Amino acid sequence: MLRNMAVFCLVFLVILSAVHVYSMPDMVFVVSSYSWTRLSGRAGGVNVLELILTYYGDKIILSVRVHLKLMNDSWSYTATPCFEGSWEPGFSKKFSFTVNASEIPNDIKALVKVTYDSVAEKVGGKYEVSSEAGEYTFSFDLKYSGLPLPSIYVKPNTLIDGMVNNISLMIFNNGSGNIIDPQVTVYVSGATIIDRPTPLRLSYSKIEAGSYVIEKMEVLPSQKQVTFTVNINYLDGEGNVRNEQYTITLPVIESTTVLVLAEPNKLFSGSIKRIKVRVINLGDIPLLNTLLKLYTSQGSGIVVSPQLIELGDIGPQDSVECEVEVSVPLTVISTQNILYDLIYRSVKGVRLVIHGSLNVFVVEKARLIVSSIDYVPEKPSVNSTVVLSISLINTGNLALNSINVTVEQSSGLIPLRKTYYFIGQLNPQSPVSVPFSFRAVEVGEQTIKIIIFYKDIYGASWNITREVSIDVSGKSAGSNSSTSPVGGALSITDELIVLAILVAIVGLVAVMWFLGKRRRK
């Protein structure tokens, strides 16, 4: 029996030695290092996190996937897994994860999960594989500091020659990380920094992402261009030392902007008027010992006096005024240019001249005249009809519009027709007559007020007022004067005859004026 048990044990040992039993490997993963190999300078940009993991275990793991999840209390992001075919114990692997999130906190917990589909073990010079899947999860703390992106801006972008310029040096952080402990050195060539050491050294504790600092200084240019060289030495959020240098070149110009205006700038033709000429220095440098010379172009017709005026010194953003007399002929109607030479001395003693012109607008003054005021009969009596004729002439060169003639009579005159007459437009050199008729009812001096309203071609309103006195006598033809005019009273027929005579007289005057005008031509 003992012999049979010994044989059984020997067979069992032989069978056992022919079969390899797998067990779950004892594994540990260690984060050897991590780094942000790419940092985006803007929110929502693409960042790349590189992990170097070392595997310690007793077997080779196959079909390995490394999963990464970043999170904190209020934020999480899951990256795309990385794949590795096999991983032997004691070896390190590098895995790169793309992190594309709109906002990444500074302090993050990284959760890493390593999964595999099978394991392999070397047995007798060959590998034997077993489909044993497994996973291993661990976490570690991670910091995201972003990417600082400094940039430089100098304001203004041009400098004025011959004067001290106020400069603002602005250092921006356009990135997603802080600029820590920046040490700034500013070198200036082509100009002198006023009341500051050279080179100018500046330091700040931190320039946060999206913010900037401003340093003001005064510089006096000595050349036609000024160059600012700015060196920035700083630390990023990972503690790396960074050094960047920027160069900005600004042109130096002579800024002289002068505005010359006439006040008022509207003149009437056929007039002599004193106007003010205002010289405004809109530039940044003073105009010294300034002279203003005024003259007109050939054929203009207008005359300006005096022609040479001493203005003295005109400071930046300052102005001076002087008075001149402008004579405008009757025939001039249009925009006229008065030319000028502004002669001055710069702060460097150079004599300079600015040529230009100022505009004045010559308009025609409305010239409607009352050529005559006639009435018949010459000595009216009570109960007689008085016919008033008002003759108008447009003596200007442009048409007049909206002409309206209105009369206002005293109580001793009763109007026999409407007391206004609308003429409308009246062409140049054209006469017109307007009749009105009244019944005299009171003895004594009676008055008629004539008011003429009209507009010129610019829409400006004008008016003329005249007054005529008529002496009404006490002689009357009695009640039958309407049928048999006696003692100066006029019947209805007589009134029509008088009106016809007035119209004939007006027509004759117009024909004689027209024939006379043709002879003059």
What's the arrangement of secondary structure elements?
Layout: H1 2-18, E1 28-38, E2 47-56, E3 60-72, E4 75-78, E5 82-87, E6 92-99, E7 107-116, E8 118-123, E9 126-130, E10 134-143, E11 150-155, E12 159-160, E13 165-173, E14 179-189, E15 191-193, E16 200-203, E17 206-207, E18 212-221, E19 225-235, E20 241-253, E21 258-263, E22 266-268, E23 271-281, E24 287-296, E25 303-305, E26 308-314, E27 319-328, E28 334-345, E29 351-363, E30 368-376, E31 385-394, E32 400-409, E33 413-415, E34 420-426, E35 431-440, E36 444-455, E37 461-472, H2 492-520
Parallel strand pairs: 12-20, 22-29
Antiparallel strand pairs: 1-2, 2-6, 3-4, 3-5, 3-7, 3-8, 7-10, 8-9, 11-13, 13-18, 14-16, 14-17, 14-19, 15-18, 19-20, 21-23, 23-27, 24-26, 24-28, 25-27, 28-29, 30-31, 31-35, 32-34, 32-36, 33-35, 36-37
Note down, in words, how this protein is organized.
The protein is mainly β. It folds into four domains: about 20-145, Immunoglobulins (Immunoglobulin-like, Sandwich), CATH 2.60.40.10; about 150-255, Immunoglobulins (Immunoglobulin-like); about 260-365, Immunoglobulin-like (Sandwich), CATH 2.60.40; about 370-520, Immunoglobulin-like (Sandwich). It is built from two helices and 37 strands. It has helices at about 1-20, 490-520; strands at about 30-40, 45-55, 60-70, 75-80, 80-85, 90-100, 105-115, 120-125, 125-130, 135-145, 150-155, 160, 165-175, 180-190, 190-195, 200-205, 205, 210-220, 225-235, 240-255, 260-265, 265-270, 270-280, 285-295, 305, 310-315, 320-330, 335-345, 350-365, 370-375, 385-395, 400-410, 415, 420-425, 430-440, 445-455, 460-470. The strands form eight sheets. Strands 3, 4, 5, 7, 8, 9 and 10 form a seven-stranded antiparallel sheet that branches. Strands 12, 14, 16, 17, 19 and 20 form a six-stranded mixed sheet that branches. A five-stranded mixed sheet has the order 22-29-28-24-26, with no helix packed on it. A hairpin with an 8-residue loop joins strand 30 (about 370-375) and strand 31 (about 385-395). The longest helix is centred in the C-terminal third of the chain and has 29 residues, at about 490-520.
